Amino acid sequence: MEADAAAAAAAMIARARAALTPLGALPPELQPEDEAAGYAVQRALHEQVAVRQGARVGYKIGCTSKVMQDYLQIPHPCAGGVFATGVHSSGVSLPTTGYVRVGVECEIATRLARNLPPEAAPFTAERVAAAVGACHPAIEVVDDRYVRWETLGAPTLIADDFFAAGCVLGAAVAHSALPDLLTVRGRAMINDEVAGEGTGADVLGHPFHALAWLANHLAATGQGLKAGELVLTGSLVKTVWLKAGDRVRMELDGLGVVEAAFV
């Protein structure tokens, strides 16, 4: 996709996101024809939204579990950006009016202590694990900001950061104190009722497999992950869509809890 077309597509997406206007199909001449073009638009979008959303501080990985692949009908992982203004601490209250249709997912977030530069690829789960400084129990906040997402296709969803709208983080657990992430069980609690459950094994077999996928995906276009960046490794449960007044609590055994209210 030509740079001018990617920038024009990104500008349309950025305007819709800022205005909370549901995004429909892009004009034919601006639609990314494949996922590589979708990521080209996404990179242009990140440059355009930085003024309003702050610096990109990491990434989210979507479609890492079978439950989410089945739900979205996309059989492989997809990545999006996480921005400074969208990162919150446990206990936050967030207005539902700040989203088109807000939802939440139960995640294990990683915080990198070391760079994963593109020249060091290919990466394995073992290699990226050594770069992780800590993990957090996390709520990924997602936004269905589309007229009908089922009709847009993966390239356009990727261009718009694949539903990403921020996250809420619980306390960090240092790498040396981490439980076996393979067997960590997560529960999504909405208003004190269980809305979904899963384990770390549901995330591409292990959350560090998802992190390795992202590192290799970025390396393919000459990009890397940097120390201090946050990576949301993918949901253990199917997305839960919310309404005003909902209270969210994600419990991840051995990692802790994270809570938020949507008002």
Automatic annotation (TrEMBL):
Residue span, Fumarylacetoacetase-like C-terminal domain: 88-261
Keyword Hydrolase included in the entry's annotation = yes
Q: Which UniProt keywords apply?
A: Hydrolase, Lyase
Is the keyword DNA-binding assigned to this protein?
no
> Which Pfam families does the protein's record reference?
FAA_hydrolase
Q: Which GO terms describe its molecular function?
A: hydrolase activity
Xref: PANTHER family: 2-KETO-4-PENTENOATE HYDRATASE, ACID HYDRATASE
What this protein is called in its record is Fumarylacetoacetate hydrolase family protein
Specify the species: Bradyrhizobium denitrificans
